[in-house]
Design brief:
Layout: H1 5-15, E1 21-25, E2 28-33, E3 36-42, E4 45-49, H2 51-59, E5 64-69, E6 72-80, H3 87-102
Helix pairs in contact: 1-3
Domain TfoX N-terminal: 17-99
Organism: Nocardiopsis gilva YIM 90087
InterPro entries: TfoX_N
Length: 107
């Protein structure tokens, strides 16, 4: 298993009513809204879109760190430590990601 299926189920329960779709890709599960990725659960835990304007706020939260891909920090994404993801924290991050993603043009 490349990702935490229990965490994926918890996220899906919160997102499916909002018109979000889920896709398994590259050993992860990707959650999309209007064709744009809003969150991903993969081997490192939960990654969420926060947009460049949300990075400072996101990184000030406990358990959040920048998403690094191939040695380069991605300016619109953070990874959340799984041990911090109680129900309230998971709700917060998924709402945060949905607000940012809903502002993007549909694909």
């Amino acid at each position: 298993m490349a990702y935490d299926e229990v965490l994926a189920d918890r996220a899906w329960e919160r997102l499916e009513a909002d018109g979000v779709t889920a896709k398994k890709m590259f050993g992860a599960i990707i959650f999309l809204f209007q064709g744009n990725t809003l969150a991903c659960i993969y081997e490192e835990g939960l990654m969420v879109r926060v947009g460049p304007e949300g990075m400072d706020e996101a990184l000030a939260k406990t358990g959040a760190r920048p998403y690094v891909f191939r040695g380069k920090e991605q300016k619109s994404w953070v990874v959340i430590d799984e041990e911090t993801l109680d129900d309230d924290v998971l709700d917060f991050w998924l709402r945060f990601a949905m607000e940012i993603t809903a502002g993007l043009p549909p694909k």
